[in-house]
């Protein structure tokens, strides 16, 4: 099996097939991990492109594939049996191109071909060969609904989208009224469904263009938050470092002798200041990652040397005889990545595992997974309930009832590790069952750039 093997194919002949294509496009997008909003984007782009191609009265073949090389993406290829006119088709699909990441229109002699692609989200489940086979089996059993069912689904999606931007656009109230009027006349205007669908698709394209603009504003707000965190963290580091230094001077043998109680209180102050400095440094690192101020330095990474360094630097943390700390020799000697960022991710995962493992083992290994490399950190700790697998990657979140065996947790290590994984072009996920430990998998491309 290759990464380019189709998920499913379909043949469209008449305009009524547009509804089936839209339903299948949404179902495929859901199966490969897109969120509801992106599912609608893919379905809308597909139905609008098919409508333009079917306008010539010739059948169209649609193929869905997943490209796993480089940046994983869902690709849709529409081959039309009539050649000529790619410029006209491209002009008609100009707005549709805003709903996907890439769109190409070619005239390959035997017909016009439209190719669209949208990147898979970073947090999407890994599409292993077994998972791909399950998706193909489920799609093969897909039964398309009626045009009325599809119109009802589309109307529901429009209402949800309108609710999100009503406060910013006064004329959305007019669109909502038109939508309700359209719903009341659906049965009487059934013979005009194709024309109504075409008009609705244009409205959806324009609406998502507005949502993209709001997304830009949200990103600006997020950048402002990151700048605030960075500035506050930077300003806090100096006084906290001063507190630690003053505490060290008070307990120095050259200073005036302290009573036992005074020494104990000073040590408490130093310990609290050290914890606060760790939190401040974590906030500063996270703020830099969120603000996009971390640029990877791509180079050839010697994994054997890196694993040896991790084994040496983290060995002092594995002081409990009940816990076996194992860093296996890498089966893959060299890969292209950022050595500093990769080591930081693995160090965060291993440190976290050592903190929460009371007995058993903490292990680091690496293995090839198709065109990618998977770094696996497994432990025999208390484990994480399935419903909290994504929440552990939120800032400051810690699993209820979990207590570190050694050190203190800030709730920033895992969120920072996932952001660094995204910067390196990969993803970070967790598989865990309470009582059986946890396994964190960092999946990266072999040759990143």
TrEMBL record:
Q: Please indicate if the UniProt record lists Kinase as a keyword.
A: yes
Record carries keyword Kinase: yes
Ranked from the top, the taxonomy reads: Bacteria, Bacillati, Actinomycetota, Actinomycetes, Micromonosporales
Q: Which residues form a coiled coil?
A: 148-185
Query: What Gene Ontology terms describe where this protein resides (cellular component)?
Result: plasma membrane
Q: Would you say which domain of life the source belongs to?
A: Bacteria
The catalytic activity, as recorded, is: ATP + protein L-histidine = ADP + protein N-phospho-L-histidine
Instruction: Enumerate the SMART domains for this protein.
Output: HATPase_c, HisKA
Positions of the Histidine kinase domain: 231-448
Q: What is this protein called?
A: histidine kinase
Supply the EC number(s).
2.7.13.3
InterPro entries on file: HATPase_C_sf, HATPase_dom, His_kinase_dom, HisK_dim/P_dom, HisK_dim/P_sf, Sensor_HK_Regulatory, Sig_transdc_His_kin-like_C
Q: Where, subcellularly, is it found?
A: Cell membrane
Q: Which Pfam families match?
A: HATPase_c (PF02518), HisKA (PF00512)
| Molecular function per GO | phosphorelay sensor kinase activity
Signal peptide residues on this chain, from the entry's feature table? none
Keywords on record: Coiled coil, Kinase, Phosphoprotein, Transferase, Two-component regulatory system
